Amino acid sequence: MQDDATLLARLRQRDSTAFRAVFEQYSDKIYRLAAGILQNETEADGVVQDTFMRLIEKIDTLKGTAKVGTWLYRVAYNLCQDRLRKRGRTQSLEQMNDEIMPAILTDWSQTPQAALQSAELTALLTNAIDQLPLSYRTVLILRDVDGLSTRESADILDISISNVKVRLHRARLQLREILSETFTQYVEVVE
Fold first, then answer.
1. pTM of the complete model
2. How many domains are there within the chain?
3. pLDDT tens digits for 76-112?
4. Statement to judge: residues 185 and 132 lie in one domain
5. In this structure, are residues 85 and 77 in contact, taking their beta carbons and an 8 Å threshold?
6. What is the per-residue pLDDT across 173-189, written as a single tens digit (0 to 9) for each?
7. Environment class of 176 (CB within 10 Å of its CB; exposed 0-12, middle 13-18, buried 19+)
8. Are 141 and 112 contained in the same domain?
9. Residues 6 or more apart from 26 whose CB is under 8 A from it?
10. Which structural domain range is residue 131 located in?
11. What's phi and psi for 91, nearest 5 deg?
């Protein structure tokens, strides 16, 4: 894809090819983030639609200091927060307890690669990610699933870089604990 300045110029000119390219590049990622936060596919679809509608509505006001993708993620994140508030949840991501630490650690070196590629284990991984606290799950999706940088994740979530690193570290530890328990149960059933 082209550099952001060129892309932004094309979007401001209402170039349908540029809009299509942005949608194709980011719609699945935005959906994954929204589904991870909201844990509702229908609402996640709505967030994707609303995010790209905001892009169309606000394209002339974008300053160009942030990447288009980072801006889209931030809009999607804010839309998710709005939907959570409308559901009656009063805790924001920043208010959630960041002090959960894992108790179980497992040596992963014995896990066969072929087993990790199975659809059943992919479902187990998805389920494990869904069990993470929202603040951890969001950072994990942005960094490890979507591959965004720490800076981009911090900008999207409006938190410090060090906070992103801490949440990501804790998310990985907690995910590892959840998967350790799951795999232990899985191996006992298979044996």
1. 0.69
2. 2
3. 999 999 999 888 754 444 445 444 555 555 545 545 5
4. yes
5. no
6. 999 998 888 777 655 65
7. middle
8. yes
9. 69, 72, 73
10. 93-190
11. -85, 130
